[in-house]
Every structure is written in structure tokens, then in C-alpha cells.
Amino acid sequence: AGRGTDILLKPDLNQRILRAAKSMVSNQPRSNFSIDCATSAEASLLAHELDTSDKFEISLTGVATVEVKPMCSYLAPENKKSFGLGLCVIGVSLNGSSRIDRQLKGRAGRQGAFGASKLIVSSQDDPIAFSRQANSIRSANATNTRRVPILVQSIQSESDADERWRSALSRDYSSVVETQTLSFYHWRRELLASNVWRQSRSDSVVSWAIEFISSEFDSISETGYETVFDQIQSQLWINIGIDCEWMYGLGKTELSAQLAATVLDAVDDISRQFEYEEFDQLARNAQVETADKLWPQHLNHLQDVALSCAIAGPTHRAAVGEFIEQAHSSFQAFLDDVNREVVPSILALDTAGERRNQTEQPIVIGNEILSVLA
Description:
With 374 residues, this protein is an alpha/beta fold.
């Protein structure tokens, strides 16, 4: 049973407990003993139940103690026993947080008749089994009921402290991710509200060309120049419709520069197919859509980086510092990924523009057709 769940009790539970207590008292040796109850109401009920037998002399002493004196007794040390009518929760796993167990104990006590409830747990529960107090609890005497609750409370206090410590550590990493998220949405808002693409299109295209050519030239030592150039030529023609056959023989640097110039000329040609502000708006939208698509992947990458730094860092402070540096580098790589994917998307606007112009062209009807329709 937990928060919002009631524990179902049979209506005659109290009477059954009282009858069991009376049977227990009847089987005791003929000596005086006292029964400590949780409340005075419990003591009154128990005394009334025992008083129906002519074998005992019953009296109430103190606030919640029942004195039992058999009619035929011999001198013996006085025994003390405990009695309660509350609900006993058995077989409940110990939670790492003491707050949860306190809630469960409170619910069991409220639903029991007088709240004399106990929580019985196993020494194999994870909070106990993996704690420094595990051996002490297992070796504790079963009758030593004071020591075990103290040890369990100590375990839960340690668990609560560990949870607070882990929460404090995670906040440091979360603050870095939150700061970067705010930077991303600030960049996104600025992009939509200004003509950033028009101002930075040259830098974006040059950066894209350098990265594209560099990634292809990484395998030149294994496959050779001709194979690498064929791969570049086929990708450019298939993806963005640019023929670079005339660039054969150029090195990596010159090839990147010529490709950037060719792409910029193509972008200028496409922009002239649209109205003055329309092309810039389409380019900004394409950039934002690409960034939104890649952002969840970037957040997952940051989680992996945070875990790696937390494991490898000699101290928490050093680990967070390393995470800040790697997160900054990852954000720059994220922007590069956005730029790498958005340039082909913008060049694809040429096809969309042609389709748009074709659909908007007026339909010319010849005079012959008009005469027939008339």
C-alpha cells in the first residue's frame, strides 16, 4: 500500500487480536506479569476481555499498563509483555528514503485501531544489504528490538544524505546543459528575427565546402586522388546538382575555394527566382528546421559526455570543468552539423522555385478554343 491506496482490514480484526491475547495470557506460567499497551484505550479493551475469566485478577496501572495476577500463583520474577491493536505491515521492502517509510507507517497506524503498528523488513533489502551496517543488523539478537531500528534509521539517513549529494552533483551538470539550451534558443530566436543568413551566407558556404572536401580527402592515401574526386563529383551532382568535372586536378585547398564560389553563384541564382525577402525567409526556415531536428541528438550526446566526465574526472570540480569545455566544443560541432545539412537544403529551393513558377504561369487559351467555347 502506498500514497492514495488503502489497506483493507477485516471488520472483526480487533476482536480476533483480543481473543488471541487472552489465549496467550491463559497459557502463561502462573506468575504475575504486566502488559504494556500503546494507548489507554487499548489497555481498557484488553482489561475488559481478560476480566471475563475467573482465573486472573486484572487491574489497570499507569496510563496504559494492565497488571495480571493469576488466582493461584507462585512467587516468580514479574514479566512484561507488549500489546497493540494496530496494523502490522509485514514483508515490506525498505525504501532508500525514510520519508516513504514514514508515510507507510503513518497510513498503517491510522488504519489500525490505535496505531501500535510495526514495519518488518528483510535484511536482504538493497538499502540494508549494501550498507556499512549490514553485518551489524544480521548479527543483532532477535530479541534486541532497540538496536535494529536504530541501525535501520542510520541506514536510511545515509541513503538520504547520498541522495542529496547525488542531487547536488547532478545540478552542476544540469546547469551547464540548461545554459547551453538557453543559448540555442537565443540563437534560434535571433535567426528568425533578423537577416543573419543573408549576412553570413558566404561564411556558411565556405565552411561547408571546406568540411565537405576535407572529409572526402581523408581517404586519399588509401584510395587515390581519382577515386576521391569521382566520389566528390557524384555526391555534388546527385545531392545539389553541381557539375565539378572541370575542377579535376585541383588540390584540397583550391578545390574547396572553387566549390564554395560555385555554390555561392548557385545560391545567388536561386535567390533571384524569389522576391526580395522571400528567399531569406525560406533559408531561415530551413536552417531552423534542421537545427530543431538535430537538437535532441545533441542533448543525448551531452548526457553521454557528462557520464564520461563524471567517471573519468579525479574530482567533481575537475569533472564539471571538463564537461563545460567539451559541451562548448560539442555546441560548435552541432552548429557545424546544422550548416552542413542546411546548405544542400537551400540549394534544393531551386527545384521548388521552378515548380512554383510553373504552377503560377497563366494558362493561355487560343482564339480557336475560345470560339468553340462560345
